[in-house]
Structure formats: C-alpha cells, structure tokens
Amino acid sequence: MMNLPHLTFLRSFEAAARHLSFTSAADELNCTQSAVSNHVRSLEEFIQRPLFVRHPRSLSLTDVGEAYLPSVRHALQEINVATQSVILRTHTRKVVVSCPFSLAENWLPDVIQGFNAVHPDIDLTVHGTVWSDVEANVSDISVTINHVDDVTPDMTRLWVEKLSIVCAPGFLVEGKPLTEPEQLQQARLIHILGRPAYWEYVARHYGLTSLNLEDGPRTNASNFAMELAAKSLGCVALPRSLARSYVDRGLVIEPFDFDLESPWAYFIKVKEKPLAPPVRLFQDWLMQAAAEMNT
Q1: Which among 61, 100, 119, 187 would be 20 to 30 A from 214, CA to CA?
Q2: Does 255 fall in a domain?
C-alpha cells in the first residue's frame, strides 16, 4: 500500500476546513491551535499543494483544498462507521451455546437461571444437539459428550461422569422390587441407541453373565428412556448427571448402590481466543457449576 498521510493531519484539515479556523478546530479536537496549524502544514508538505489561504483573522480553502475536502470527509466518516461497528460487535452481550438435548434439558436450565440472576444483561441462545455438534462456528461454547479416548487438547472435561441405573419406584422384577444387581438378569432393560456399552459395562462390573441385551425398548433419547423407566417399562443405565433431576423429582429411583465411572463424559470447547467478555463470564460460570457436580 502506498504511503498515506497521518490520520491526525487529515482530521485537523477536515475540522479546520469546516470551521475555517485553526482555533475552532483546536477546540473541537481538544488540542492547541499551533498543533492544528502544524498538522495542516505537514499535510500540505505531504501532498505538495497548499490547502488554505491564510488571512490575518480567517482561512479560506484553495482550489486544491476544495477538491480534496469531500474525499477526506467521506474517508473519515467511513473510518468512524467501521470503528463503531467493531466496538458494538465486541461489546455485544450475547453468548451462543450448543449442548446435547439431554444435558440441556436436565442440567443446563438451573445453570442458566443462576447466571441470569447475576448477569441479566447477557442473552443466552442454546442449540440442542443429538450426538454431534451444530454447524461449525455457530456456537461460542460447545458442550459435547465424548469417549475419554477421543478427547482433543482443546476440550475441557466438565466433570468425572458416573453411570447410574434407575427404575420407577414401584418397578418389579418377577413380582419383587428391584433391590439387587443380580435381578437385572431377569429385568426388562431399556436400551439407549449408540450406547450399548452402558449395559455391557454394568454386566462386566457385577459379573452378570446372562443380562438380556437383545429385548426391551430402544431409543436414541436419554430423556425418553427415563420417561419409559418412570412408567415402569423397564430400567435403564445412563449418565448420573442426566438421571439426577429425575431422581430428585421422585420420578425414578436408584434401586441399589452403584459406583462405576462412565467411559463417556461431557466436555466444553470454546470457538476462539481471546474470548469476548460475556463468553468468558459464562464459561467460568459453567465450570463452577460443573465443579459442584463432583461434590
């Protein structure tokens, strides 16, 4: 790009041309009259043309100044518009989050409620996802569920996920309440498509050799699986973070003590760095809420 005159020289020229006075231009630009005069003189030296006729008590534009002024004024206006656009975009108080539907429905509302109480000026948009994220660059913060062996360096784990087995409070296995892991071999199981390993891990954990993995309702939605369990249509193994809200509401119960880490966990990834202030605020809030899940 060719050499251009200093922006300060152009601003002083435009103000002096508008007021036809170095003194008035200096008042507007919050500098001295001599500074404005020197700026204009430097600009004239740069373009090698006089811009003003200097009278004892006033100024008038030369023909060159008259011709140059509209272009300078337009350029300064364009710079101002572009600068304001960047400032407004930088300070937009919005955060876009993508999150699996199951976690978005069972955990995220309480997180957002607390965040909104402290930061009511920040608007949150949540995109629910199933198995995969929304289109790239849509979300400021992406929450995904990943196998621990598939994690990349730009992902941060929210918490150590545990598996949970839940059923309806009155769920019976061969006429008896479900209270022992061994009864799962006779129980009707609900299966989450894409996660057959949940029941496989349970069978391996308890040494169950005849768990029925072929029959029973199937769904790709964890929340629907818990709704089926709440209707006594079977029991289901799934992440404890999803089951917690159903257990807290008494819709399902954990029929026996069970402590097994899940091979899948929830992770967050942010779109870009440095983060916009609202994104940083919500990321910090999210991580604090996640830390409480481990307590």
Answers
A1: 100
A2: no
Q: Which domain holds residue 133?
A: 94-160+264-293
Report residue 106 as tokens: 């069972």
Cα dihedral 240, 241, 244, 245, rounded to 10, equals -150
- Assign 103 to helix, strand or coil: helix
Q: Which two tokens stand for residue 189?
A: 């199981």
Q: Decide if 76 is inside a domain.
A: yes
- Minimal CA–CA distance to 201: which of 258, 244, 241, 146? 258
Q: Measured between alpha carbons, how far is 164 from 243 in angstroms, rounded to an integer?
A: 7
Beta strands in the chain (DSSP E): 52-54, 59-61, 94-100, 123-129, 141-147, 156-157, 163-166, 172-173, 176-177, 189-192, 218-219, 235-239, 264-270
266, β-bridge pairs: 145
- The greatest distance separating any two alpha carbons of the chain, rounded to the nearest whole angstrom, comes to 110
Residues 6 or more apart whose Cβ sits within 8 Å of residue 162: 239, 240, 259, 260, 261, 262
- Asked if residues 133 and 98 have their Cβ atoms less than 8 Å apart, the reply is yes
133 neighbors 97 (Cβ within 8 angstroms): no
Residue 221 tokens, joined = 């939605």
pLDDT-based confidence at residue 203 (cuts at 50, 70, 90):
very high
Q: Which residue has the tokens 């949940």?
A: 198
Arithmetic mean of pLDDT over the chain: 90
pTM above 0.70, yes or no: no
Report in angstroms the alpha-carbon separations of 174 from 131, 180, 188, 269: 35, 13, 10, 46
Is there a single domain that holds both residue 29 and residue 62? yes
Predicted confidence at residue 136, as pLDDT, reads 57
Structure tokens at 153: 């360096």
Please indicate, yes or no, whether residues 78 and 128 belong to a single structural domain of this protein.
no
Asked if the structure places residue 254 within a domain, the reply is no
What is the CA 153 to chain-centroid distance, rounded? 18
Residue 84 pLDDT class (50, 70, 90 cuts): confident
